[in-house]
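quick one before i forget lol
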Amino acid sequence: MKVLLFRFIFLSFLSTTLYASSNAVVFMYHHFGEDRYPSTNIKLRQFQEQLDYLEEYNYNVWPLSKVISYIQNKIQIPPKTVALTIDDAYVSIYTHAYPMLKKKKFPFTIFVNTRPIGHNSINYMTWDQMREMKAYGAEFANHSSTHDYLTPKKD
């Protein structure tokens, strides 16, 4: 039941891009195939199904920087455009998601918190792994060390 509901939500969400060519859908992921993090994990089978859907239905999978550039320059974004983003540079990105994305030739953007990378945590990618992904074409962007609330409070 959960898979069917998830698939319905995913497909419904994607279908909205058909009617809004001035928008893009940005997906955000964290962990891949790591059941110990249920709130931020996606099962590998589900992720593969999502990638297959994007490919089968000819979605434009763009790097996030391209989406941002089009918005900033007020250039019309084609219908069915999505960007794939991943937070925190967990090692499962390199071991599980990267091979799947590379096989599909889909671009993606990873937001990196450098604190655990600098401390050589086994739960996070290494600088060499990130350099390899960068050579493939992955984008990297800054992620804060904490999740501070950055919007000023209104009185």
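fyi The longest strand covers residues 81-87.
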